[in-house]
């Protein structure tokens, strides 16, 4: 039986937001969540729901896979 690997989710939310010149408040208004939620996502302290991940991908005209990646821990 294959062993489960230890992973973490990393994201490009802050990079995408900064590229567009948006504040956390602006992105939170577009996404319909609080600024604190955006801050927590950017700092990898909160994993968004599938619905929010899809909404963020749509806002950034991207895919969920391009914004959120699963990285193996050493």
Automatic annotation (TrEMBL):
PROSITE patterns with a match to the protein in the record: HTH_CROC1 (PS50943)
The keyword Translocase appears for this protein: no
Keyword hit for DNA-binding: yes
Gene Ontology MF term list: DNA binding
Domain HTH cro/C1-type: 13-67
UniProt keywords, alphabetically: DNA-binding
Pfam families: HTH_3
Protein name per the record: Putative HTH-type transcriptional regulator
Source organism of the structure: mine drainage metagenome
């Amino acid at each position: 039986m294959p062993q489960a690997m230890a992973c973490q989710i990393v994201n490009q939310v802050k990079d995408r937001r900064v590229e567009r010149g948006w504040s956390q408040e602006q992105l939170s208004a577009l996404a319909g969540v609080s600024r604190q939620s955006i801050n927590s996502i950017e700092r990898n302290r909160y994993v968004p729901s599938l619905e929010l991940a899809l909404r963020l991908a749509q806002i950034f005209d991207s895919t969920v896979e391009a914004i959120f990646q699963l990285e193996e821990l050493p």
